[in-house]
Write a structure and sequence with these properties.
Blueprint lengths: L2 E3 L1 E3 L2 E3 L6 E6 L4 E7 L3 H17 L7 H17 L1 H12 L3 H24 L4 E3 L9 E9 L2 E5 L5 H14 L3 E5 L6 H13 L6 E3 L4 H10 L5 E5 L2 H11 L5 E5 L5 E4 L5 H13 L11 E5 L3 H12 L20 H16 L3 E4 L19 E4 L6 H4 L6 E7 L2 H9 L6 E5 L3 H10 L4 E4 L18 E2 L6 H5 L1 E9 L21
Parallel strand pairs: 1-5, 8-9, 8-11, 9-10, 11-12, 13-14, 13-18, 14-17, 16-17, 18-19
Antiparallel strand pairs: 2-3, 4-5, 6-7, 7-21, 12-20, 15-16
Bound molecules: nicotinamide-adenine-dinucleotide.
Length: 507
């Protein structure tokens, strides 16, 4: 029997009102690893009601920021204590390798809470304006207040980290939340809610409802009592959310898809590029929104670079994500495996040359139910091809040759997306200058995937709206209030009243 995970509403673990459940599959072997209560609209409404009530009670929303920061530090500590459990659960449900979830994800998650707490401690929650002649005299204070109830919707690729990206700032600024994880991967979000409770975060501040996006997600997005939506997922769903949220004029943060370009300049170190470009593309089997999936290389260097990339790709160990020897695990599902294989077919049809991979790897029988794909490298890709324009979300690297650097920049920017980009070169000043011309929210020079909790992350163009992390994210989870207190008690000195009253004309 797989373990049962209830919903988490108002500090209580509860079944869905319909008593329905759904199964979570381990993508490494295709076996059921958990059964989860399947929320419906009524459960979402109840979670929103509880979040609203908790928010209005002031039990968390009126706690001083310094105390809230202490809670974030406590949560970070508790995450560190339960790191092993979180990492192995994350690996089981998402197929992210244990090497990565244990070696990086849990550390990043804990750090997200610590750094958000530190940023909160120095964040300008209150600002007094200098006095001016008119209107006045008066005392004018600008204060930051929580937004209210935030609906957080997360995808399946990095469920734990991405929940942390949203939960840490939402809690920091005093909001109450309803979070809906992706149905493939609800387990670590449910465990996080338990951790928050252990740390003493008041019940009802964080509520978790796992269930279908089209039903539960939309119920949250359209609910009048939800003040803000923070969504991470595909651009297609992001567009719909933006539309739906407009009916109640909700604030919206959207972290969407990408098709990130990496430009290799002629002086780049080929050894560094061949490892770095594969790290950029094949980490988590290419299922990272900012994966460097388009490698734009000088035409005359293409063959040599491809030779190196292929040699290196062949050393990546594919297998069960739970084994520490595994460098690349499965993709999330059989459906995703099919999607990726279809993209590979489309690349072949459009005339790209398959340099490596392109198939389901041969693996031990115990992994037959898993959804694996070989790391795949296409060369001679034209940027107009479907494999270069659409987000594949699988381990497929497109090598696109260029002639001049101006061409390379044009190709890099020729996409609807703008999440990340990169430049590989020994001339870092030149690389930075090119980086400034790339229309993307994050640009790496000679590296990839280097995200940090004190640096804002988000998309240009159709990769999204708003930013996560950095002090910038605290603006996203708060709103601005201007408090004007008049210092003119004598009605006869309020010269501005003459704008309305005739009696002033006589004075
Ligand atoms: P998805 O858009 O299918 O689903 C994301 C979440 O939205 C899930 O929880 C899903 O249940 C929910 N959802 C689906 N339809 C909905 C609707 N109509 N209303 C409300 N919620 C709905 O994305 P996915 O397949 O889970 O994740 C992969 C995508 O996420 C990729 O496009 C990837 O680039 C993107 N992503 C972006 C970032 C970023 O920071 N920019 C990070 C990770 C993933």
């Amino acid at each position: 029997m797989s373990q049962f995970y209830p919903l988490f509403i108002g500090g209580k673990k509860v079944p869905a009102r319909s008593d329905e459940t759904f199964e979570v599959i381990n993508p490494s072997n295709g076996k059921v690893c958990a059964t989860v209560a399947k929320a419906g609209v009524e459960d979402a409404n109840e979670a929103i009601r509880v979040a609203r009530e908790t928010f209005e009670s002031g039990i968390w929303s009126r706690v001083p920021p310094g105390e809230r920061a202490k809670m974030l530090f406590k949560i970070a500590n508790r995450i560190a204590k339960r790191a092993q459990e979180l990492a192995s659960l994350e690996t089981t449900q998402s197929g992210g390798t244990l090497r990565r979830t244990m070696g990086s994800d849990v550390l990043q998650l804990a750090q997200q809470f610590t750094v958000t707490g530190q940023i909160l401690n120095s964040f300008p929650m209150r600002e007094e304006l200098p006095s001016i002649g008119w209107p006045g005299p008066s005392v004018n204070v600008i204060e930051r207040e929580p937004v209210g109830v935030c609906g957080l919707i997360t995808p399946w690729n990095f469920p734990m980290i991405l929940a942390g990206w949203k939960l840490a700032p939402a809690i920091a600024m005093g909001n109450a939340v309803v979070i809906k994880p992706a149905s493939y991967t609800p387990l670590t979000t449910l465990l996080l809610a338990e951790i928050f409770q252990e740390c003493g975060l008041p019940d009802g501040v964080v509520n978790v409802v796992a269930g279908p996006g089209a039903l539960v997600g939309e119920a949250i997005v359209t609910h009048a009592e939800v003040d803000k939506i923070s969504f991470t997922g595909s651009t297609a769903v992001g567009r719909r959310i933006m539309q739906l949220a407009s009916h109640t004029v909700k604030r919206v943060t959207l972290e969407l898809g990408g098709k990130s370009p990496a430009i290799v300049l002629r002086d780049a170190d080929p050894d560094l590029v061949s490892e770095g470009a594969l790290f950029a593309t094949f980490l988590h089997s290419g299922q990272i929104c900012e994966s460097g999936t388009r490698l734009i290389v000088p035409r005359e260097m293409q063959d040599n670079l491809v030779e190196r990339l292929v040699a290196k790709a062949s050393t990546i160990t594919i297998g069960n994500a739970m084994e520490l020897t595994t460098g690349m695990g499965p993709v999330i599902s059989k459906a995703q495996q099919n999607t990726v294989l279809n993209y590979i077919q489309s690349g072949l049809k459009e005339g790209a040359i398959l340099a490596y991979g392109g198939n389901i790897p041969v693996l031990p029988a115990a992994l037959a139910g898993g959804s694996y794909i070989q790391p795949t490298i296409f060369k001679n890709v034209d940027n107009s091809m479907k494999i270069a324009q659409e987000e594949i979300f699988g381990p497929v690297l497109c090598i696109i040759p260029y002639d001049t650097e101006e061409d390379a920049i044009r190709i890099a920017n020729d996409t609807i997306y703008g999440l990340a980009a990169g430049v590989w070169s020994k001339d870092v000043v030149k690389a930075q200058n090119i980086g400034r011309r790339l229309r993307a929210g994050t640009v790496w020079i000679n590296d990839w995937h280097m995200l940090r909790p004190d640096a804002p992350f988000g998309g240009y163009k159709q990769s999204g709206l708003g930013r996560e992390s950095g002090y910038q994210v605290l603006f996203e989870y708060s709103q601005t209030k201007h408090l004007h207190t008049s210092m003119v008690p004598d009605v006869n000195q309020r010269t501005w009243y003459q704008l309305l009253f005739d009696s002033w004309a006589a004075k």
